[in-house]
Each structure stands twice: as structure tokens, then as C-alpha cells.
Amino acid sequence: MSKLITVFGATGNQGGSVIRTILADSDLSKEFHIRGVTRDVNKGSSKALTAQGVEVVQGDMSSSEDMKRVVQGSHTVFLVTNFWEHQSAEPEIVQGKTVADACKTEGVKHLIFSSLIDVTKESNGRLIHVTHFDGKAEVERYIRQTGLPASFVMPGIFTTELFNLIHKQGDGSCILATPTTTQSPAPFIDIVADMGNFVRAALLNKPKSGANTIYASSDYYKWDDIPSHFEAATGKKLIVVTVSGEVFKSFLHGLSPEMGEEVYENLMLLEDPGYYAGADLTASLDLLSEKPVGLTEFFTLNKDKW
């Protein structure tokens, strides 16, 4: 009899990638039956999952009773929380802890959480506004305290953020402005294509007890390295420039000052202490059965954007 895996954010980037990966894997699709959690079971993307054999359920992540119902019978749970829905860490932390408590109560054997580092701690209090990292780090600490066997999969910078960072100029060339030095290493992931691949690695390398961490990025890329990937894929010139923090934040149209500071400090994290606080990616990449999408491939697939 197949085991049940419950996947939160089933119609989103991360949960959707996890579901597609399991369905496409001949072994995992036999090993696991999938329950997908979404906010609206009636939307088209939810119905498309149902048509593929996924059990789609609705649940309020802030409700203990709802979450116990949602994870009941699950061997494994993939949990992703959404900071950007409220642009606040507090609801995200509450929801993450509520799901963790439900997993503990219902006897879940493996909790896989999409986590990030504690930037305030790792920067020694210098960068205190990267709350979409710190909130997830708080949930991770809580999960570790429950004693649940857990895997923490930490996605890098979404490659789609480059749509916002690289701008076409009047002469046809492109420019990327960063408040960091151009030597700062940035780990990137094609979240739609590859989050599922890293979660598959977590499924195949479940800790017998305690927890493990998987860094979900294709590689570290210095900003100075990006033009060669961009130009090879698009045939267009890309110039990388360093600008002041105030100039960079002035480019962030449509964001509140608080969110502008969040994005700015998120990039400054790359300089010191580093996106993953200096962690090496080799061991995580060695767990993959498929090579992740690199920047040249990403730019090739999306060259019409520029």
C-alpha cells in the first residue's frame, strides 16, 4: 500500500514542483499517494491536480484542528509557508508552528520544510530586516525542538528575480544594478523546474532521527559571472554596476519603504555573511538525480524577456 505525502502550496511554485516531480518519477509515484493542500479547491489549477490523481484538500494553516485533519494519515509532509501574503513574519511563524504541531500529533514520519537562514543571527544583528528569512528560521528551530525527523530544503534566489534586476537599455544592451560588490556570490534556483528535484533528494535521504539540511541552488554565481551566461544565451551585452543603497531602493517601484529595506538587506546578505552563511553546495548537489537548471539554460529559455 502506498504511503501518503501531503504537499502544502500544491498549486504554487514550490508545492507544484514537488507534485510534478513525484508524479513523473516511476518509483516515487508508486511509493506515495499525494494529498495537495490549497486555499481554493475549485480553481482550475486545483481541478487539474485532481485530474492527475492528486487528492486536493482545503485547509486554514492557522487552525490546529484544520491542520490535524489535513495531515492525518500522512507519512511525509512538505511544508512551504508564505511570507509575502501578509508581508509579515508573525502569521508565517504561527502557521508553520501550527502545521508542525499537527504533524507531531498525527505521527508524521518525515517533515520537509522550505526553510532559510536566520539573517539577524548570522549577521550579528547588522541585517535585521530580512524577515522573510528570519521567520522561516524560527519555524525551523521550532520543528527541531519537536523531535520530528525533518529535512530543511533551503531554496536559493529564484531565477525569476532576474526579470526584475536586468533591464533593457535604449541601445539594446542590458544592465543589472546591485548594491553589493560585483564579486558577491549569489546562489540561484529555477524554483519551478528544480524545487521538486531537491525535495526528491530529501525523500530519498530521510534522516532516521534528527534533521538534515539541503541547499537548493544550481551554483553560486558572482554578479560578474552573470554577463557571460546572459550573452551566451541571448546574444545581448549585459553590464553589471554597483550602486548605492539609496539608488537601488529608488528602483523598487511599488514597494513600501519597509519592503524596500527588506529587499536591499536581502541582497547585502550576499556580501556578508552570505546567502547560506558560507555553506558549500557540493553535498546537496551530489544528492540530485538530475542536473539542475543553470543560468545559461534559464536565460536561453527566457531570452524573449529581454
UniProtKB/TrEMBL annotation:
Cross-referenced InterPro entries: NAD(P)-bd_dom_sf, NmrA-like, NmrA-like_oxidored
Keyword Transmembrane helix listed: no
Keywords noted in UniProt: NADP
Residue stretches making up the NmrA-like domain: 1-298
Pfam families linked to this entry: NmrA
Coiled-coil spans in chain: none
UniProt-listed CDD domains: NmrA_like_SDR_a
Gene3D superfamilies linked to this entry: NAD(P)-binding Rossmann-like Domain (3.40.50.720), UDP-galactose 4-epimerase, domain 1 (3.90.25.10)
GO cellular component, one term: nucleus
TM annotation in the entry: none
Family assignment from sequence similarity: Belongs to the NmrA-type oxidoreductase family.
Name of the molecule in the record: NmrA-like domain-containing protein
